[in-house]
Design goal:
There is one protein chain. The protein contains 9 helices and 7 strands; from the N terminus they run H-H-H-E-H-E-H-E-E-H-E-H-H-H-E-E. It has about 240 residues and is of the alpha/beta class. Helix 6 packs across helix 9 (about 200-210). The longest helix has 16 residues, at about 160-175. It is globular. About 35% of the residues are buried.
Length: about 240
């Protein structure tokens, strides 16, 4: 799926996005719970870059847990970012946020960030070189040694294990009140529009994108998450 088509899709889904995925919230909650630990040790007034922030759920979690942190929220979908902005206002951390509607490369220069989140975003970049360049763009906006928490759908799609995992995943999605038509569209999208790669290949892309030690810290079905460290020098 082309970037503008993807942006349009998320614009259309923004208003009901959190409600649609409410039944899969335990996955998100577990990821965010572990995120607190992998970000432990960051400064009390850390700057966090949230790439593809969507409706701002992980940002809200971190904002409540770490009241001194400040956030830069980036998303190409203005509608999604509007939801994130309302959430920040309702939960009382709007004054700690900077919002940018657009892609990462259009974000104006500013102070380097201590850490970044990027959840279920890079999988939409099908070309491995472009995907590495996307991560390099994140690395350039971090301090040396800054941390990246990222997640993507990952599996060896040529393996017999993948079909078992995919079937279980689709069963879970059906339980989230998605229609059979939506489930079938999702199955097709995984084959055509999403770069579902073996975890080791995603880790190699992270390294090529300017990060060392991509360490897996979470898996739920097809979702894998890593904590990585920005290399001392990024091209």
């Amino acid at each position: 799926m082309q970037p503008e088509a993807l942006k349009t899709l998320f614009d259309q889904q923004a208003a009901g996005y959190d409600r649609q995925w409410e039944k899969t919230a335990p996955i998100r909650q577990c990821l965010h719970f572990l995120l607190e630990s992998v970000f432990a040790g960051l400064p009390g007034e850390a700057r966090i870059l949230c790439v593809g922030v969507g409706t701002g759920v992980e940002m809200a979690h971190l904002a409540q847990r770490f009241p001194g942190w400040r956030f830069t929220a980036v998303d190409p979908s203005g509608a999604m970012l509007d939801v994130a902005r309302r959430r920040a206002a309702e939960e009382g951390f709007l004054d700690r946020c900077r919002f940018h509607a657009g892609y990462l490369e259009t974000l104006p220069a500013g102070p380097a960030h201590d850490a970044a989140t990027c959840f279920l975003v890079s999988q939409f970049i099908l070309d491995a070189g472009a995907r590495a360049e996307f991560f390099r763009g994140i690395a350039r906006r971090l301090v040396p040694g800054g941390r990246l928490a990222s997640s993507d759908l990952a599996s060896d799609v040529a393996s017999p294990e993948y079909e078992l995992l995919l079937q279980a995943w689709m069963t879970m999605m059906a339980g989230a009140d998605l229609s059979p038509e939506a489930i079938e569209r999702m199955r097709r999208a995984y084959a055509e529009d999403v770069g579902v790669l073996p975890p080791a290949q995603v880790e190699a892309i992270l390294r090529a994108g300017g990060f060392d030690l991509p360490v897996p810290f979470f898996q739920a079905g097809l979702i894998h998450a890593w904590i990585s460290t920005r290399q001392a020098s990024v091209d």
